């Protein structure tokens, strides 16, 4: 057993945990990040994230990585289109360079954070299997290989299925009633021109009740789609996702009536469609202060995808580090200040999503504007998963 009582011990090297480690480092506070995956390249990091000027970019600034961040931005990819399922354009907005939510690849953003940390900060291949309180703010973390570490300050940045969360709360994520199926089309401008045109230069949304298509244009004409279906888990369990052709055929059946250039995001996809069931913690999830431990990001406030999760995780990391730097020698005061602000921030974000900004509300507003022949200025905020 090793004792690690002077460091901040962070579980999880996602965007939240790494932002925390980076801003701690800038403030001279040592940290160790334990990550379950064996290496930075162990898992594909997913596609594009739009990083917002009101949360994610504030964290990038706190991490002093704005120049590196700007170099990652995909120019022109803030464009947005909203289409009817029959292909009619309801809303269209070009990227004129003045938007506040540039798109970057998640993996590249994670890499600039990793590159900004002192060597050895992240311990790869350390999957936490259990945690227990030892009293006096100390906790024992046990890893899958049986090794342990004792912490002075423990931070759960370990995502939806956090192993640290039970120290603070008995909440567990519940199925939201919706899953997404991820698909890819490659070199779409030459191989799938009608679909490439429908998606446009950035993001495309098309939906009707219970069914959604989102697609992002990535580099080299790759179209990355999230096909959303509101169905119970059992509905998806009945589909064999190890049989790519059968799974594609079953999902495509649900979009048969859609314009061919849109349903092609399913029927023409390459590789196996990937199922991602969506889970969320209760909206009001919070906890009483427990000495020596806290949570950030999805571990604290996993929500149905609303385009804010990674942004909030990064801001949590930056704000927690700042709180610790602002309260030298008084970790509990720092954790209290961080948690109170984080609970308010989360409630405001989730509240905004529930207050007239759902996709259904957006579509209703666009339909209304179209019927009235008024210019469209439906307050489009991030709506993709
Ligand atoms: C389909 C989909 C699309 C999304 N799109 C967007 C988007 O466009 N914009 C946006 O802002 N958000 C988006 N989100 C949400 C976003 O991905 C999350 O909110 C964000 O990744 C949370 O960051 P995090 O650092 O808290 O957790 P994570 O990114 O989940 O990182 C947690 C880390 O902890 C590690 N870990 C987990 N368990 C253990 C363990 N037991 N031991 C050690 N390590 C462990 C994991 O390997 C991982 O590296 C999307 C989510 C989904 C599902």
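Sequence proposed for the structure above (385 residues):
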């Amino acid at each position: 057993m090793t004792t690690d009582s002077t460091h901040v011990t962070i579980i999880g090297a996602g965007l939240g945990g790494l932002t925390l480690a980076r801003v701690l480092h800038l403030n001279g506070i040592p940290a160790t990040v334990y990550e379950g995956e064996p290496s930075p390249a162990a898992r594909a990091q997913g596609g594009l994230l739009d990083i917002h000027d009101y949360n994610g970019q504030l964290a990038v600034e706190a991490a002093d990585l704005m120049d590196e961040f700007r170099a990652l931005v995909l120019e022109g990819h803030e464009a947005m289109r909203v289409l009817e399922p029959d292909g009619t354009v309801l809303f269209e907005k070009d990227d004129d360079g003045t938007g506040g939510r540039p798109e970057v690849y998640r993996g590249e953003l994670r890499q600039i954070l990793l590159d900004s940390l002192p060597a050895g900060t992240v311990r790869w291949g350390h999957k936490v299997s259990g945690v227990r309180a030892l009293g006096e703010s100390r906790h024992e973390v046990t890893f899958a290989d049986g090794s342990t570490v004792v912490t002075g300050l423990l931070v759960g940045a370990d995502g939806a299925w956090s192993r640290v969360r039970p120290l603070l709360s008995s909440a567990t994520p519940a199925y939201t009633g919706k899953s997404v199926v991820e698909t890819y089309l490659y070199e779409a401008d030459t191989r799938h021109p009608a679909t490439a045109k429908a998606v446009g230069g950035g993001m495309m949304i098309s939906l009707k009740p219970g069914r959604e298509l989102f697609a992002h244009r990535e580099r080299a004409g790759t179209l990355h789609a999230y096909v959303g279906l509101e169905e119970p888990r059992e509905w998806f369990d009945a589909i064999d996702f190890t049989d790519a052709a059968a799974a594609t055929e079953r999902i495509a059946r649900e979009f048969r009536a859609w314009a061919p250039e849109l349903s092609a995001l399913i029927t023409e996809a390459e590789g196996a469609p990937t199922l991602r069931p969506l889970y969320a913690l209760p909206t009001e999830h919070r906890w009483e202060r427990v000495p020596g431990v806290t949570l950030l990001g999805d571990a604290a406030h996993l929500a149905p995808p609303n385009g804010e999760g990674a942004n909030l995780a990064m801001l949590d990391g930056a704000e927690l580090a700042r709180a610790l730097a602002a309260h030298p020698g008084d970790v509990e005061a720092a954790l209290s200040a961080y948690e109170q602000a984080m609970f308010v921030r989360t409630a405001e974000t989730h509240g905004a999503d529930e207050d007239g900004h759902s996709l259904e509300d957006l579509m209703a507003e666009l339909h209304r504007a179209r019927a009235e022949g008024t210019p469209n200025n439906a307050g489009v905020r991030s709506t993709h998963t």
